[in-house]
């Protein structure tokens, strides 16, 4: 009985629905207020739980990048270029912000979150230019770059005593 119900549910879930689920990071992209910030906030759970497992963390980060490129490319065809609903790029940015950062605690999570949102919103010229890259590559690369800057800034703040 349970197997039949499971099979019926799986049969009704379309690949397009799965892409929307992943591409909007569990529908955070549909938030009426600040979808990128909402997605970034909920993404904090990933570095919190993954930081003790650096190789798994790195594997998931790479996977999110390439999966995000593919999914964002498809979703742009539906919603338009770099649509606000596409928030998988925020997940990547948050993961990169905390990549190989230890320790992870609430202060570091909060600081990294603020740094990532700053660099993602401020869009330094080279980050802004990366958005012109076609398809999902442009969607993902600008947040990758914002995440790298956030990671470097966070490391500097940790050296100064933020922890």
Could you explain how this protein is built, in words?
With 163 residues, the chain is mainly alpha-helical. The chain has one domain (14-159). Helix content is 73%, strand content 0%. It has nine helices and no strands. The protein has helices spanning 2-12, 15-23, 35-43, 45-50, 54-79, 88-97, 106-122, 125-130, 135-159. It is globular, with a radius of gyration of 17 Å. The chain crosses the membrane at residues 21-49, 55-72, 92-116. This is Phosphatidylglycerophosphatase A. GO terms for molecular function: phosphatidylglycerophosphatase activity. InterPro entries: PgpA, PgpA-like_sf, YutG/PgpA. Residues 22-157 form the YutG/PgpA domain.
Provide the structure class: mainly alpha
Work out the strand percent. Answer: under 5%
| Helix and strand pattern | HHHHHHHHH
Average pLDDT:
92
Q: Give the biggest sheet.
A: none
Whole-number total of structural domains: 1
Spatial gap, N to C terminus:
52 Å
* Oligomeric organization of the protein chains: single chain
The level of helicity is over 70%
Number of E-type strands: 0
Radius of gyration based on Cα positions: 17 Å
User: What is the 3D shape?
Assistant: globular
Helical segment tally?
Answer: 9
Low-pLDDT segments: none
């Amino acid at each position: 009985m349970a197997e039949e119900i499971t099979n019926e549910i799986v049969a009704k879930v379309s690949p397009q629905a799965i892409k929307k689920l992943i591409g909007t990071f569990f529908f955070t992209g549909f938030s009426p207020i600040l979808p990128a910030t909402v997605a970034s906030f909920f993404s904090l759970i990933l570095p919190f739980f993954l930081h003790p497992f650096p190789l798994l963390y790195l594997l998931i980060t790479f996977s999110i990048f390439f999966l995000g490129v593919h999914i964002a490319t498809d979703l742009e065809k539906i919603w338009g270029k770099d649509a606000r609903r596409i928030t998988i790029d925020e997940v990547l940015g948050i993961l990169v912000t905390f990549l190989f950062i230890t320790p992870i605690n609430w202060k570091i999570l909060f600081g990294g979150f603020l740094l990532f949102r700053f660099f993602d919103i401020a869009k330094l010229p080279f980050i802004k230019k990366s958005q012109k890259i076609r398809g999902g590559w442009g969607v993902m690369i600008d947040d990758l770059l914002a995440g790298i800057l956030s990671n470097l800034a966070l490391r500097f703040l940790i050296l100064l005593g933020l922890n």
